[in-house]
Every structure is written in C-alpha cells, then in structure tokens.
Amino acid sequence: MSGAARSARPLRAASAGNGVLLILIALLIALTLGMAQLEPLFRALFPDLGNPLYARDSFLNLMLAHIGLVLVSSLISVTIGIAAGLFVTRPVGREFEPMVSSLAAIGQTFPPAAVLAIAVPLAGFGFTPTIIALSLYGLLPVIQNTIAGLGTVPQTTLEAARGNGMSRWQILRRVELPLAMRVIIAGIRVSVIINIGTATIGSTVGAKSLGTPLIAGLVGNNLAYVIQGALLVGLLAIVTDLLFERLERRYAFGV
Amino acid sequence: MIELQGLTKTYAGKNVVEDVSMTLETGEFGVLIGPSGCGKSTTLKMINRLVPLSGGRIILNGDDVTELPAEQLRRRIGYAIQSTGLFPHWSVARNIATVPQLLKWPKSRIDDRVDELMAMFHLDPAEFRHKYPHQLSGGQAQRVGVARALAADPEVLLMDEPFGAVDPITREALQAEMRRVHRQTGKTIVFVTHDMDEALQLATRIALLNGGRLVQYDRPIEMMVKPADDFVREFFGQADLGLKLLSRRWVHQYQRPPSLAHHATLPGLDHCWRLDDAGRPIVLEGARLDDQHRHTDVRAEWIATPEMSMKEALSRMVWYRVMVLPVVDGTGKLIGEVGMQGIMGIESDGGLHAGEPAS
Q: Where is the ABC transmembrane type-1 domain (chain A) (predicted)?
C-alpha cells in the first residue's frame, strides 16, 4: 500500500534534497562537537582577540539546552494552539473564533524581549520566563494554521463522512485531522523555526542556550563568540526546517 | 421497504418540504425530481437525517427509525453524492471499506467484500485497490463512490445527484451500470436528479416535487400518459414525449430473429446478415436508405444490446443511416435484430393511439 502511495507523490524534490540534508546534519553535529578544533582558524581570523573560542561551557551542552528550550516551548504552543484551533472550529466554540484569533495575534505582536521583562518579576530568572515568552510567541502560527487547515477540508468530504455514519469524533480523527495535517504542520514549522531563533534572547535572563556565547560576544565585543553561536543557531534552524518540509510532504494527498 | 410519512422541514418559519409521504417497496428504484429548490435534496437528506426532521416519520422495513441515533441509522443506509466525496487520503479499498470498518467487520470479510464490489463495478482490484482518489477518472471515482455506499449491504441506497458532475458520455455509461447493479442487487434506491432523461433511464417510480410538495408519485409511464396536472405535463415536456417513451423501452422488447437470407418482401427493407465463424455479424447486405443493395461493414457504433434503450437504438439508426441494427449477446454473437418498422410494432402499455384524444 505504502509503495503505491509513495509513487503518487513527487519524489524528485525529496531525493534531490536528501543529500543536502545529510550533509547539513553532519555539519551541525561536527561543529557542535568539534568547535574547539577550529580554534586555530578563529585565532587567524581574529588575531586581536585574546580568547577567540567560547570555552565557558561546551557547545554540546549549549546545543542540548537550546533544543530543550525550543522543544518544551513548542510542545506548549502546539498543544494549546491545536486545542484552541479545534475548539473554535467546533459548533460549541465557533463564536470564540475572533477572540482567540486576536489574542494569538496580540501574543505575536508583543516583542519577546518585552514578554521576558514582564515574566522575570513573576517567574524569576532562567528557564521559566524564557519558556513563557517562547510559548506565547509561537502560539499564533499554530492556531492560525489549525483553523485554516480544518477549513480546507471539502464540504462534500465532510458530508460523505457524516452520511456514511461516522460520529463527530470519528470524523475529526479519521477525516478532518489527517486532511488538515499538512497545513497544521506548516504552522508548527513556522512556530518552531521562530522559536529556535528567539530562544537565544533567553540568555539575557539567564537561560542557558546557544544565545549564551552570542550575548557574551556582544557584551564583551568578541565577534568570534557571536559567529560561533550564530552559526550553530542558523544551522539548527535550517536542518529543522528541512526535516519539517519532509514531514509536511507526507501529508500531501494528491495536491 | 421504506416509508416516508408526512416529512416536513421548516427553515426560518418557511416550509421547504411539506408533508411528503411516499412508500417505496423493496427493490424499487425511486427517483425524486423537480425544479431547483423544490426540496428534493432536502427530502433525501432527511431520510438519513443529515437534515434533521421538523416533522414526520421514517419507517425502514417496519422499524420507526426517526428516534434511532443518527449514526446507527446512516450505517444501515448507503449514501452516494455528487463529486463522490471520496476521502482523498484513503486508498480506493479503504474508501470502499468505510462503513464495514465502522461496523467493525473482521478484516478478511472486509477484504472479500471490497473485491466483490470492485468486480461488480468492473474495477480490477489489482490495479485499483491501492490507488488514491486523485488518480482516478471522474467515472471511476463515481463508481468507487457508489461501491462505498453499497459496501455494508445497506437496506436502502440514497444517491444525491451522483452523476451530476461527470461528462455526458461517462454519465450514460454510469446510468447503464446503475441499472445493471440495481438489477443484480435488488437494492431499494432513492435517487435525486433534476435531469428527466436520467430519471426515465433509471426509475421504477418517480416522485415529482414542486415548492416542497409531492405533486405526483407514480410509475414513469403513468406520469407521462396520465399527468396529475399541468405542472407535471409541462415538466415532462410534450414535444418529445414519444421519444421519452422510447427511453423507457428496451431493445429486448422489440427484438426479433435475425434475417440470415434475402427474401424480397418489402422493397427497401430486404436485408441479410453475414456472420463470421463465431456467429458475430460482420456485414449487412441491404437495409440502407441510400442504396438498398449496398453491403455495409458492421461497426461497433451501431451494434445494439438487449439492455439498450430503444431511444438509443433509434438514435443510432438515424445517425448511421441503417434501417436495422444487429442485437448481440455478451460474446458478440448475433442473437436478433431490431428495425425501424419494429419501433411502431409494440403496443405500449398506456401509450396513445393515433386519433385518440390526449386525455
């Protein structure tokens, strides 16, 4: 079954991208584990700096902490976002749709730095305020795309599902969610990518992340630190984006 | 058997369907027809409660199903709609298996049933089982849609303009297939259309609705020859009633033994078939308006089958300018012929004779 299914989908783009993806993943792992090996390079590039390699923590630790921040905050945004999107597309919650949409939009227009500033007095320094800021910031794309994705399911398909005797729950699980999944995943993709970038500012309130060398570099006027942090954040974002692209494609049904 | 008793639907204080009562015996093919907005589709959707009833009752094989949970009711009633409503993320096999899966049939029984239905609709399981709806032609998708509706062997099959979105040639093929499937399964069918030709092709009972009310419910021929009022008369159209009658006549009713030798009885009508070794007609000698001695190669385009409507047979005679068509069985063997003069030969049940006043 899966063979026939796969042959129906555009394979060319996928196979062309596979090599690139593998190279980028290898590069990401190599740089995370072996940044120290590049010390001579950074020394050559920045001869004026006494300390051209960030060494207060290992890049592996920073990477894992960064991924942890993004994972936890994205899980929260996705859970709340999909739940809210589902709620406002059901008959009981339909009237709340404008309210939920604008709340999510407000969440996104708030600069994350401002959210951090508000969250710190409430939740202290470190992990928690960062998670609050990131979760709020990542909510909008998930909610919007959940609503949009469920809206793309054709009326005739829904009528057929009802007419064939599916219950509301069965229609949601077997028909609406699978058909909306591609658009929902696209929303999660945007949300996660935004959070990978935004998580760096968590370091300003003491959350460990790849933003730590970045901030340290900015404060201490050390461009090499900035490059080392930014390189890893950028690579992580690109790799994650490519992985999501693949995931999305699995849910393309004849489109 | 399905009985509708006083079915009523009210939207915003206005009755869009008003007191529709009709009984469809088991095995009948009932067609709901009428102008747009007459309530035919609403009536159909009340039968499986996609549209909630404002009033009235539905009796399915003796059970009052009006109070039954809607999902349970719908699993006893097949449902096929325009543009198929197939689930785009499911294979053909899984689409067909929708209701059996909801009813939790064992897997082997579902597989057998899917194969059986695909065979009934001439879809080769090896080729189509794993295809997805977007890989099907309109006609194939519509067949899958009907197969899905029949999957759990429902007591009644509802069809809401199922062939409305396909091209005319495919539609004719699907109609012929629907007639055959109806004959094979003996299903009770309720079918909505706005196309009178389609209704006449398929129906054993026609219900004509207008403004939410049932105007006349009768056998197709009765409706043509004994219209209840001017609306019915107008709806059926007067000018081509004769042709419409022919669309309810089948070649096997007019078929006679084939002429295999010349006998010059009637000028212009003398003809003779030449067959190949397998008994298939290959050449027609005579029976051409333009040249009565001409030999004509028999072409597939003007071969008739016993199940073909006489309207179609007549159309082929006119178009290909032959006075007589060969009638062949499933293997292509000549089993009879049907001719121009034969069209007038049968006493139509209820048809008028020349000179009789039209009621």
A: 63-244
**What is the distance between the alpha carbons of residues B146 and B123, in angstroms, rounded to a whole number?**
12
Q: Is the Cβ of A254 closer than 8 Å to some Cβ of chain B?
A: yes
- If you classify domain A3-253 with CATH, what class do you get? mainly alpha
pLDDT mean over B303-320: 87
Q: Identify the pLDDT of residue A1.
A: 37
Q: How far apart (Å, rounded) are the C-alpha atoms in residues A52 and A45?
A: 9
Segments of B178-287 assigned E as strands: 188-192, 205-210, 213-218, 271-275, 281-286
Residue type, A22: L
In chain A, which residues have their Cβ closer than 8 Å to the Cβ of B148?
164
Could you give the ipTM of this predicted complex? 0.76
Contact state of B81 with A160 under an 8 Å Cβ cutoff: yes
Q: Distance between CA A125 and CA B236 in Å, rounded?
A: 82
Mean pLDDT of A166-181: 93
Domains, chain B: 2-247 (3.40.50.300), 252-344 (3.10.580.10)
**Contact criterion met (CB < 8 Å) for A5 and B85:** no
The tokens for B138 are 């309109």
**Tokens encoding A188:** 């999660």
Q: How far is B118 from chain A (nearest CA, A)?
A: 17
Chain A interface includes B131 (CB < 8 A): yes
Among A75-84, A131-140, A205-214, which range has the highest average pLDDT?
Answer: A75-84
Residue range A144-161: mean pLDDT, rounded: 92
* Cβ–Cβ gap B102/A161 under 8 Å: no
> Quick one: A40 exposed, middle or buried, by C-beta within 10 A (0-12, 13-18, 19+)?
exposed
Picking from A2, A7, A164 by the largest number of B CB atoms within 10 A of its own CB, the best residue to mutate is A164
Is pLDDT above 60 for B125? yes
A204 vs A216: CA distance, rounded Å: 9
Q: Can you name the residues that pair with B57 across neighbouring β-strands?
A: B5
Classified as helix, coil or strand, B63 is strand
Given CB atoms, is B107 within the 8 Å cutoff of chain A?
Answer: no
Q: pLDDT (tens digit, 9 = 90+) per residue, A30-43?
A: 998 888 888 888 88
* Model confidence pLDDT, tens digit, residues A56-66: 888 999 999 99
The dihedrals phi and psi of B188, each to the nearest 5 degrees, come to -80, 125
Question: From CA B223, how far away is CA B218, in angstroms rounded?
Answer: 6
A4 to chain B, any CB pair closer than 8 A? The answer is: yes
Query: Could B83 and A156 be called an inter-chain contact, meaning their C-beta atoms sit closer than 8 Å?
Result: yes
- Strand bridging mode B29-33 / B156-160: unpaired
